């Protein structure tokens, strides 16, 4: 019998609609897989077996009655722990929210439920999405299924690891500076950051409100498009939501024809500082696009060299403001300070925030509070916003000449767990290629480009498109995926080591 966990979401959908398999069988297969391997991977913070099976049974009953169901009805999904999910713990990877069970759903979670998709559980992440490795989760690190001693990317390492270890066919993610795309790159999965405002942010626990964007994660371009279509759309509950239809992403993924398209290579993101194996796979992928009929040109975006500095002023500033609500009075953990009989509100707040927040969150709050403080606002936060404008202008100029832009997704393959924990700057550099898209609000995709020669680990290629032209990501992504899969003789994940109870 076919291993249901190895099928794509599109394949599962076809089998479910044909009556070859039930939603209960599909969901149970993934829960069994999680029971077998997640002790090694630690992708999940909470497994929602009973509620997932209840949804699956409901879908089967509705299908048996002949109801017209959504194409993904019965296809299970893992949800990043930053999205409020009614009835399931939602912690954002932090002790500050430990045990919190929301009484409401994030809009994109409600869309999943409306589509009849069983929610397998909540997956691990860096605390409040701050990090590039999922090592900053208060509940322990997630491991990369390709090599359990390495990081699965961050902040959405739980999503990417669940996909790469076949514990879920689909997952949700959020991308503030690359937290969907970078984990996709290091695990040989696919992830898309939609145009800012393309997926509702209502019910996402905020990190940096002008940067955060929910999006789809999967193992193929088509699966990602199918999930994108479910998650997207206008939401009156979100003031940043774009009042426009979801771009035709599924149609684009099915078509995948790049003939006549003009592709730009970002010169600032392809040279020094990128691991040779990552660069080699990128160049090969570009050559395949040329062979498929795309015209490739080089494009310069000179302001990108300041993107990292601007981002790491804007993000901490917004994080400092957003996380101020967790003050032990309104939201979050409350801890009584030691040795004080009648503590003041300020003392309770200090003790609670000290106990509830981890090192990386504290670091960024301190930086952000400083950048927003009187006398420094213009020099730091204000200047960073000016750089942001310049980056948006660079993109605008580039897209006057090309349809999409390309770069490696991340400068390296997955690094060993613990390697960069004591060097935050080295960790931040991992986001160098993904950050510009968040600063400008444009959509981006990462898909596998192959295995690096140095370590045999996955590398990713990034595609960027103009705002609300998300379908271009899927057109180019599908064409490239098809060419690469033909070259490899099957999906790259087929080459991943088999996980066993003894460690893989």
Structural write-up:
The structure is a single chain. By secondary structure, the protein is of the alpha/beta class. It has one domain (4-303, 389-495): Amidase signature (AS) enzymes (Alpha-Beta Complex). 39% of the residues lie in helices and 11% in strands. It has 16 helices and 11 strands. The protein has helices at 9-18, 23-41, 49-64, 107-114, 157-164, 181-187, 221-231, 249-255, 276-291, 307-322, 345-356, 359-372, 378-399, 424-428, 435-440, 470-488, and strands at 44-47, 77-80, 119-123, 170-174, 190-193, 214-218, 262-266, 295-299, 404-408, 444-451, 458-464. The strands form 2 sheets. An 8-stranded mixed beta sheet has the order 4-6-5-10-11-9-7-8, sandwiched between helices. Strands 1-3-2 form a 3-stranded mixed beta sheet. Strand 2 (77-80), helix 4 and strand 3 (119-123) form a beta-alpha-beta unit. Helix 2 runs antiparallel to helix 3 and helix 10 (307-322) packs across helix 13 (378-399). The longest helix has 22 residues, at 378-399. The chain is globular. It starts with 8 loop residues before the first helix and ends in a 16-residue tail after the last helix. The model has no long low-confidence stretch (mean pLDDT 96).
List the helices and strands and how they pair.
Layout: H1 9-18, H2 23-41, E1 44-47, H3 49-64, E2 77-80, H4 107-114, E3 119-123, H5 157-164, E4 170-174, H6 181-187, E5 190-193, E6 214-218, H7 221-231, H8 249-255, E7 262-266, H9 276-291, E8 295-299, H10 307-322, H11 345-356, H12 359-372, H13 378-399, E9 404-408, H14 424-428, H15 435-440, E10 444-451, E11 458-464, H16 470-488
Parallel strand pairs: 2-3, 7-8, 7-9
Antiparallel strand pairs: 1-3, 4-6, 5-6, 5-10, 9-11, 10-11
């Amino acid at each position: 019998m076919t291993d249901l966990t190895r099928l794509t979401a599109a394949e599962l959908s076809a089998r479910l609609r044909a009556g070859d398999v039930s939603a209960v069988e599909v969901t149970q297969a993934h829960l069994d897989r999680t029971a077998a391997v997640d002790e090694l991977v630690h992708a999940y913070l909470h497994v929602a077996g009973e509620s997932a099976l209840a949804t699956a049974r409901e879908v089967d009953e509705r299908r048996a009655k002949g109801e017209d169901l959504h194409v993904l009805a019965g296809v299970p999904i893992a949800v990043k722990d930053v999205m409020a999910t009614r009835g399931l713990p939602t912690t954002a990877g932090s002790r500050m929210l430990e045990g919190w069970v929301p009484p409401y759903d994030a809009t994109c979670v409600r869309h999943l439920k409306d589509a009849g998709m069983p929610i397998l559980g909540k997956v691990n992440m860096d605390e409040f999405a701050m990090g590039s490795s999922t090592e900053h989760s208060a509940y322990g690190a997630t491991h990369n299924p390709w090599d359990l001693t390495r990081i699965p990317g961050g902040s959405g390492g739980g999503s990417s690891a669940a996909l790469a270890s076949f514990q879920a066919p689909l997952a949700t993610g959020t991308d503030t500076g690359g937290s969907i795309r970078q984990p996709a790159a290091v695990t040989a999965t696919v992830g898309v950051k939609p145009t800012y405002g393309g997926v509702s942010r209502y019910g996402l626990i905020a990190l940096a409100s002008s940067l955060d964007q929910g999006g789809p994660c999967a193992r193929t371009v088509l699966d990602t498009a199918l999930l994108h279509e479910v998650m997207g759309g206008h939401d009156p509950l979100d003031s940043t939501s774009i009042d426009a239809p979801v771009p035709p992403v599924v149609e684009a993924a099915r078509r995948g024809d790049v003939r006549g398209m003009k592709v730009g290579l970002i010169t600032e993101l392809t040279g020094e500082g990128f691991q040779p194996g990552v660069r080699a796979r990128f160049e090969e992928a570009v050559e395949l696009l040329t062979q498929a009929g795309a015209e490739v040109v080089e494009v310069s975006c000179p302001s990108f060299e300041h993107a990292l500095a601007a981002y790491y002023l804007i993000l901490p500033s917004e994080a400092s403001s957003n996380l101020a609500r967790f003050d032990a009075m309104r939201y979050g953990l409350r801890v009584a300070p030691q040795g004080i009989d009648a503590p003041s509100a300020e003392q309770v707040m200090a003790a609670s925030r000290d106990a509830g927040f981890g090192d990386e969150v504290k670091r960024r709050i301190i930086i952000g509070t400083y950048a927003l403080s009187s006398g420094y606002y213009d020099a730091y936060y204000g200047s960073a916003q000016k750089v942001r404008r310049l980056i948006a202008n660079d993109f605008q100029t580039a897209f006057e000449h090309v349809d999409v832009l390309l770069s490696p997704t991340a400068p390296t393959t997955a690094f060993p767990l613990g390697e960069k924990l004591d060097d935050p700057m080295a960790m931040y550099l991992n986001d160098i290629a993904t950050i510009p898209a968040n600063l400008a609000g444009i959509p981006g995709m990462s898909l596998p480009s192959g295995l690096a020669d140095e370590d045999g680990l996955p590398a990713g290629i990034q595609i960027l498109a103009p705002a609300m032209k998300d379908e271009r990501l899927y057109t180019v992504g599908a064409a490239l995926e098809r060419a690469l899969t033909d070259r490899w003789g099957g999906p790259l994940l087929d080459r991943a080591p088999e996980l066993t109870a003894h460690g893989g």
